[in-house]
């Protein structure tokens, strides 16, 4: 088990925006600066601007890692799981049971989100393949975690690429989620753990939706 490193920030909106949060995370990840074979993957879309700041400070390559939340029918904001590249799916079994979702309903949700996942991969990369994570220290960055379903799917999918180490870095998450991830990854950096945890966006003064164009522009900007 690894311990989570934090910045000791005040819990009431400690970040101006995602860029500022990325710079805080970059300071906490300073040990990885100059280390060979470090790769930063920003969970698209919100994790990409955070990850860009991290990659720029660490002088590491940046790529987008696309994960789609599986929302409950009629209540899409309520995640019952997540889908990552390669078809890796993680389900919240308690939520599935509570809502009484059938295998057919889950299949339809996964097919819909799978189409959007593939669209984003094409939009962000064109014909360029994803950066190779094999044997590398991979830093997975998002703009925060609530239940951690999307990040969990990303970690499980990434393991199939056989990286040397997996590091998760987020500006904000509940302490319970952070404890869970200390058992899943090699290193965890969480800049703040608000109590009570309301939502990821509550830790930011400005939390506008990130567009596809912003993601494409950041991925086209050199960080090394």
Briefly, what is this?
The chain has 7 helices and 8 strands; from the N terminus they run E-H-E-H-E-E-E-H-H-E-H-E-H-E-H. The chain has 224 residues and is α/β, with parallel strands linked by helices. It has a domain at 4-69 and 132-219: Rossmann fold.
* Major beta sheet summary: 8 strands, mixed
Shape: globular
What share of the residues does DSSP label as strand, in percent?
15-25%
Helix content: 25-40%
- Overall pLDDT: 91
Number of E-state strands: 8
Q: Radius of gyration over alpha carbons?
A: 16 Å
Number of helices: 7
CATH topology label of the domain at 4-69 and 132-219: Rossmann fold
Structural class, from secondary structure content? alpha/beta
Fold and architecture overview:
Helix 1 crosses helix 2 (47-58) and helix 4 (103-125) packs across helix 7. Strand 2 (38-44), helix 2 and strand 3 (62-72) form a beta-alpha-beta unit. With 224 residues, the protein is of the alpha/beta class. The longest helix is centred in the middle third of the chain and has 23 residues, at 103-125. The chain has a domain at 4-69 and 132-219: Rossmann fold. It is 35% helix and 23% strand. The chain is globular, with a radius of gyration of 16 Å. The chain has 7 helices and 8 strands; from the N terminus they run βαβαβββααβαβαβα. Strands 1-8-7-6-2-3-4-5 form an 8-stranded mixed beta sheet, with helices on both faces. The protein has helices at residues 18-28, 47-58, 93-99, 103-125, 149-159, 175-181, 212-219, and strands at 4-5, 38-44, 62-72, 75-84, 89-91, 137-141, 165-172, 187-192.
